Amino acid sequence: MGGGGVMGLWTAVAVVIGAVVVVDGLVRWVHGWYREAALGGERRSQLPPGEMGWPVVGAMWSFLRAFKSGKPDSFIGSYIRRFGRSGVYRAFMFSSPTILVSIPEACKQVLMDDENFVTGWPKATVALIGPKSFVAMPYEDHRRLRKLTAAPINGFDALTTYLGFIDRTVTASLRSWSSHSNKIEFLTELRRMTFKIIVQIFLGGASDDTMRALERSYTDLNYGMRAMAINLPGFAYHRAIRARKKLVAVLQGVLDDRRAATTKGFTRSSTVDMMARLIEVEDENGRRLQDDEIIDILIMYLNAGHESSGHITMWATVFLQENPEIFAKAKAEQEAIMRSIQPTQQGLKLRDFRKMEYLSQVVDETLRFVNISFVSFREATKDVFVNGYLIPKGWKVQLWYRSVHMDPEVYSEPKKFNPSRWEGLTPRAGTFLPFGLGARLCPGNDLAKLEISVFLHHFLLGYKLTRANPNCRIRYLPHPRPVDNCLATITKVSDNY
Ligand code: HEM
Ligand SMILES: *[C@@H]1O[C@H](CO)[C@@H](O)[C@H](O)[C@H]1NC(C)=O
């Protein structure tokens, strides 16, 4: 081939690359114009920096690429790099024009403003959790049902009621895992354990078959939660949709049994569980909840009530085991508490947890460090200004809790696991958001902290975790977890407690 041919080839390559760049730029410009033109010139000029990207996918590729390649921070990082530290950006995600919010003050403003913002979860997520659950129901219904369902799981009396069951479930689980030297998937087992607890609280327990069916379906449901919403065989979202149908069927069965038992005049247990409350509640017009409403609320609660707690318990245990000094300090505190308990006392009491100051710091630091609820969704019902930028009516808002928790201006050395940073610290509003904030603050926050603390209490006093693959790769969606689900052995190391 002569020099001319090579030159020709390079020219062709240059022309093609040039054409791609031009077409790419043109497509982005047209998509941006299509999404934003209706705002009019003035409102458009008040939008935060950012771009709509390509039609359909928008920022989804770079979002999924960042999370799947093990560098989740590089997603918001790329906005900071390209558009500066405005903390508020515009993008196109989950099929909607979206404002990304990544700084504490702006997160707080959005979360506390019920007048101008409602929940705005992606359609695909709502389809999985349930259109009649909290993620999508109207404001007034949400207030009413939230009051009904949050009171029985929060506060001193409620937690006192559950403490015994949690304590027994935790000790039985630890005993069973340490009774053999086989490896267990520690995360999977912890999810099972937290699931057992939430099923007890909401359904008054369930048969082994029902438990297994529900557990399996919830795993599939969660794997599809942050995936691309492609409802075709072979895709995670498709499996998740099928899992939801199974959950509906199983819970409909439980509900039917319950209604049948009530008609016959006998109830399953002496305590009133959440299922009973949901069946009996009436609104101001005397209307009761339909089966599909009860089922969606249960699907939401049973999921929210075990997934995150299971993950946080696993990470807290791993961090304790990996940091001998932190372990020793936490263990010393638990030993002191054990010495202060009267020998006649049966099991732990709530007042014992009030004394677990350092353990509480370990749990808070884990909640911050694990980036568990990395994002939350809202939608603007009116034009609102945040940090000087316009959020147009109808646009979605993503609150990046993750960026807040990893902001070096809020937490010095944010990538260091350091429970002592919480000593004597009351975080500024909007800077610590593992449970959200405002009207949609997690109603299970105290229950979750209690469960996690009960587990760590027993673990610290008597057990050791040995991971099979301590440097296992982490997968970040839907929640950060080692890909081996923390394969490990649990060994009992002390008999004198
Ligand atoms: C470590 C464990 C947990 C974490 C990190 C967590 C985190 C969160 C967060 C961040 C939200 C707010 C989402 C938003 O801003 O829209 C939330 C909401 C919620 N959580 Fe939790 N949660 C945990 C445990 C629990 C437990 C144990 C329960 C059940 C008893 C629960 C039930 C719920 C429910 C029902 C909502 C929706 C509230 C509403 O929309 O009004 N969560 N959770
Ligand atoms: C949370 O994110 C930070 C920053 O990327 C990272 O250092 C930390 O390891 C993450 N935690 C988990 C459990 O993945």
UniProtKB/TrEMBL annotation:
One of its GO terms (biological process) is brassinosteroid biosynthetic process. One of its GO terms (molecular function) is ent-kaurenoic acid monooxygenase activity. It comes from the Eukaryota. Its cofactor is heme. The chain crosses the membrane at residues 6-27. It is a single-pass membrane protein. Pfam families: p450. Pathway: Plant hormone biosynthesis; gibberellin biosynthesis; Hormone biosynthesis. Heme binds at C442. One of its GO terms (cellular component) is membrane. The keyword Ribosomal protein does not apply. Its main location: membrane. It is found in: Membrane. Belongs to the cytochrome P450 family. This is Uncharacterized protein.
